[in-house]
């Protein structure tokens, strides 16, 4: 397992030819009622880790998972 040593818990693991990326969607999440400023869900460190991990992954299949559903706002 690959754990980043910051306050966020995210990791990855492999099973056969599949690599799973498990994300922490709570630590960096902006308040739902934020009106001004940037809204974030994953934070820069975690996004950079995910991008680097995906680029360097040799697995045929890559699955990204986190604890919330992500919906497109245009589909409301």
List the helices and strands and how they pair.
Elements: E1 11-15, E2 18-22, H1 44-56, E3 61-65
Parallel strand pairs: 2-3
Antiparallel strand pairs: 1-2
Summarize the structure.
17% of the residues lie in helices and 20% in strands. It has 76 residues and is an alpha+beta fold.
Number of helices: 1
The topology string of helices and strands comes to EEHE
Q: On the 0-100 scale, what is the average pLDDT?
A: 83
Number of strands: 3
Structural class: alpha+beta
Rg result: 14 Å
Q: Strand fraction band?
A: 15-25%
Task: Walk me through what this model shows.
This protein is of the alpha+beta class and 76 residues long. It has one domain. 17% of the residues lie in helices and 20% in strands. It has one helix and three strands. The protein has one helix at 44-56, and strands at 11-15, 18-22, 61-65. It has a three-stranded mixed sheet with strand order 1-2-3, covered by helices on one side. A hairpin with a 2-residue loop joins β1 and β2. The radius of gyration is 14 Å and the shape is elongated. The chain starts with 10 loop residues before the first strand and ends in an 11-residue tail after the last strand.
